[in-house]
Prior knowledge:
The protein is an alpha/beta fold and 458 residues long. 38% of the residues lie in helices and 20% in strands.
Amino acid sequence: MKTCFDFDIVQKYDRPGPRYTSYPTANLFREDIGAEDLARTLREEPRIGEPLSLYVHAPFCKSLCWYCGCNMKVSHNRKLMDAHFDLILDEIDMVRPLVHPSRKAAQVHLGGGTPNYLRPEQLVTVVERLRERFGFHDDAEISIEIDPRLLSSAHLDAIARAGFNRVSIGVQDFEPAVQKAIHRENSYKMVRRCVNDLRAAGIQSVNMDLIYGLPLQTLNSFNRTLDQVLSLDPERIALFNFAYLPALKPQMKLIKPEDLPTPRQKMELLTTAVDRLEESGMIFIGIDHFAHPKDPLSQAWRDQTLHRNFQGYTTHAGLEMLGFGMSAISMMDGIYVQNHSKITDWEKSVRQGHMPTARGYVLSQDDKLRRGIINRLMCRYTIDIPLIESEVGEDFDTAFPGVTGALTAMQADGLIQKEGAVWRATRPGRFLLRNIAMLFDHHLARPQGRQANFSRTV
Ligand SMILES: C[S@@+](CC[C@H](N)C(=O)[O-])C[C@H]1O[C@@H](n2cnc3c(N)ncnc32)[C@H](O)[C@@H]1O
Ligand code: SF4
């Protein structure tokens, strides 16, 4: 099916907005919530036997990509990086006793920064440490983000030995001119070799990250990139909207604003990519992910059991997540905490034997309810009025004044339609799910919510 848009309508909705990898969003975290609150929650709500998701943040990169919005640091000092790695192991040891011993990991993710800028042996060591301390479920998903420019044969061997079963490759775009404009050069040939090597090492699930909205991208150039990506047959593709925040990330000032595509061009890039990936047989899942029909994510999408967390879309229902390393976020049902984002603060805390949390947020009942509504919208494209009314215990219009009016206006714009008592995002509306979700975000109207540096929704 071809995606058709009325561009004037799309433009009407173009505004800064959260990506809703969490609700409430991280800008609301407060410095008076931290390690003690997390420890208390883990003690009072032990959730015996419930599986966990574990995230480890490896912050270092060899060079700086100008589009990068991640929490990372360029370093060439191996001694310093080795010392930092040892502190990550210390943090794992420090946190483990706080969690009920019955809880094992069903999902493990190594992100960054560039995890394959660690030494190969360190990849094995960190997975082993998590396995020893927490234990893994037999079918645990163990994944890693890799930069194809740094994947040595020793890393490949370590990835296989550590037991990783999913790998995500940062591709972004294959066009040489675009790669120069973002200071990130990984050729098609390099990525093809990397995919072949990973498959030979037994990795059955390969994801590729792409970004649309990068400088010098054109429809023609992006079509070429898509041809090349599809020729490599990845199981999953993440197609991110370029979050351009030069005020927050100084390296983005190195990108010439006049090289960036206009909002209309961005919309064309996105719809072309979605149409082409769907034509190729991939399933469009939520706002930025695609999966092969046989991939478990596609199955979960069909069964309506898909979930979304800080790491994106997942088949694991409501897993609580523990994050290790600089800037990592832990998300329990009732509390979120984030580690120090300044590397020296994080290191100092761990060295002194303290939990390196910097801020957090305790969720109210109202937050949990709205989180559920936003998650269902992101994963199923629906707003189910009877279900919501049964959760809130009152009439929808009383609980959410003004929302029906806003949804009706969106219906007139073709973004959503009402099927019985359920609102469902239309195909164009699926590209603006963030805008629909914003209707349920209680915090956006507050001064703290308004101040946040969100990327634009289009
Ligand atoms: C931590 S990086 C991936 C691993 C590795 N560092 C690499 O670059 O290959 C995670 C992904 O975030 C995405 N990303 C980074 N900065 C972004 C931005 N400003 N807007 C949208 N996506 C971004 C990229 O697609 C990148 O592959
Ligand atoms: S995109 Fe990846 S490799 Fe590039 S700077 Fe960011 S984290 Fe590092």
